[in-house]
C-alpha cells in the first residue's frame, strides 16, 4: 500500500510530507472557534428572521450566550456566510426651502470695514425641566465675539431691544441719536456672566442658569471659529 502511494505521489510530483500533513490535519483552536461562532451566528440570524445585523448579533452573543466576541469578527463571519440584515436604513432627505419672492442681498459680505457692525439673533432652548426660554444675542463680527445677550421665557419687543441698545450706546461709530434710547436701568451683560432679562429674573429658576452656561459656551466657540 505504501509503495502504491509513493508511486502515485511521485507521478503527481507531490512530496510525501505534504500528503501526510494533509492526512493528519487537525483544525486549530482559531478555526474551531470560528466554526462554532458561525453556527451560533447562523442560529441567531435565523431565529430572528434575518432582522438582526452584526451589531445586534454580537451583543446577543456577548450578553445572552456569554461569548467573548467583537463586532468586527461577527461582521467578517457574516460576510463569509453571506448573511445580511433585512432591515434597510431609512433614507433622510434634507428639506429644501424655496421662496417665490426675491431675496435681499447680504450687505455685510460687501463691507471692507466691519467696525460698528452688529449682528443679532434670537433662538429658543429647552431646559432640563422641559421648559423653553429665549436667548437673544448680539455678535460683533469685527471682534468675533458676543458682546451682549439676554434670557427670557417670552419673546417680546422689550426683550429683543434690551440686548441691542447697550452695545449701540458704547459703539464709537453709532450715531448719537440712537444713544438716548438707552433705558435708565440698563446693565451691560458681560459675555462670561449669565444674567437673565430683568423683567423675567424672578421667574427663572436655578436649572435655567446651569443649562444655559453650557449652551452659551457652545455659542461662543462657534462665534470664535
TrEMBL record:
This is HTH-like domain-containing protein. It comes from Enterococcus faecium (Streptococcus faecium). InterPro entries: HTH-like_dom, Transposase_IS3/IS150/IS904. Pfam families: HTH_21. Residues 34-90 form the HTH-like domain.
Amino acid at each position: 500500500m505504501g509503495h502504491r502511494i509513493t508511486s502515485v505521489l511521485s507521478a503527481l510530483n507531490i512530496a510525501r510530507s505534504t500528503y501526510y500533513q494533509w492526512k493528519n490535519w487537525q483544525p486549530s483552536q482559531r478555526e474551531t472557534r470560528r466554526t462554532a461562532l458561525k453556527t451560533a451566528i447562523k442560529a441567531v440570524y435565523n431565529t430572528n428572521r434575518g432582522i438582526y445585523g452584526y451589531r445586534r448579533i454580537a451583543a446577543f452573543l456577548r450578553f445572552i450566550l456569554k461569548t467573548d466576541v467583537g463586532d468586527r469578527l461577527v461582521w467578517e463571519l457574516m460576510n463569509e456566510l453571506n448573511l445580511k440584515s433585512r432591515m434597510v436604513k431609512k433614507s433622510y432627505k434634507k428639506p429644501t426651502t424655496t421662496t417665490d419672492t426675491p431675496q435681499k442681498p447680504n450687505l455685510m459680505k460687501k463691507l471692507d470695514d466691519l467696525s460698528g457692525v452688529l449682528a443679532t439673533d434670537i433662538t429658543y432652548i429647552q431646559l432640563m425641566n422641559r421648559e423653553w426660554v429665549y436667548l437673544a444675542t448680539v455678535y460683533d463680527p469685527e471682534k468675533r465675539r458676543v458682546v451682549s445677550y439676554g434670557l427670557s421665557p417670552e419673546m417680546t419687543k422689550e426683550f429683543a431691544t434690551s440686548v441691542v441698545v447697550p452695545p449701540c450706546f458704547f459703539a464709537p461709530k453709532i450715531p448719537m441719536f440712537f444713544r438716548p434710547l438707552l433705558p435708565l436701568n440698563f446693565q451691560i451683560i458681560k459675555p462670561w456672566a449669565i444674567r437673565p432679562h430683568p423683567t423675567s429674573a424672578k421667574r427663572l429658576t436655578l436649572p435655567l442658569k446651569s443649562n444655559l452656561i453650557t449652551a452659551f459656551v457652545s455659542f461662543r466657540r462657534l462665534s470664535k471659529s
